[in-house]
Protein: Sec-independent protein translocase protein TatC
Amino acid sequence: MAKKEEKDMSFLDHVEELRWHLVRSTFAVMLVAIIAFLMKDFIFNKIIFAPKNADFFTYQFFCKVSKFFGTDGLCIDDIPFTFQSLAMAEQFSVHIWTSITAGFIIAFPFIIWEFWKFISPGLYEKERKGAKSFIIISSFLFFIGVLFGYYVVTPLSVNFLGNYSISDMVERNIKIGSYIALVRSSTLASGLIFELPIIMYFLTKMGLITPEFLRKYRKHALVLVLILAAVITPPDIISQIIVAIPILLLYEVSIYISKIVLKRERKREQENA
Structure:
């Protein structure tokens, strides 16, 4: 995969180059985070707290599907818990970290661009020309994953955990930090999981995996996917299946991508032989 640069760089030169890529990426994240910080009402009331409301899009969609089949089993009227802040600086801390998370999500295409610029000197000229496609595809997968986490994983988790009770004597007063941590982990984890085809692309180019390897351990991957789905979703089988299906599809897509990459690498080796 690698191609020698026109000018050799020492290890410290690479470290210095990486440092500046990280600095620019961090600056982009913080710039967007400042904007998100100033949009407090919209970020929290319209986005973060929206899955708490019974009229959230996902709940309405499941309700319509349920009624289509002649039942209202998936319809909900309320999610019976309230938010509370128990520490003096908790709300300010939540505001800061939520803004940084929003900054990372929105600035993700720029972060990917900086990552590409760092690795591009070690690629072939034809591969360097694929920068635009790489950024678009990576960003698209990430944003689809974030939306999946927000509209599927988060409401499933909020609805299940918000209604779960071990006794009527226990009041459902949820720490605001706990709720936002759930929303944040669900969206970010889903966004990063949807980058699986991109990860497999680079692992194949590095010679660490092959399509045969992925097919051989498909059953093991299925088990890992189900475990992962169980970790990021409520402990009910329907939620786990809903989350597991797109991950399994991404795994199959990764096998196909790995096959194409390996075929191209072997063809290039034959041409250079």
Summary: Residues 9-69+87-162+172-193 form one domain. Residues 237-272 form the longest helix (36 residues). The mean pLDDT is 83.
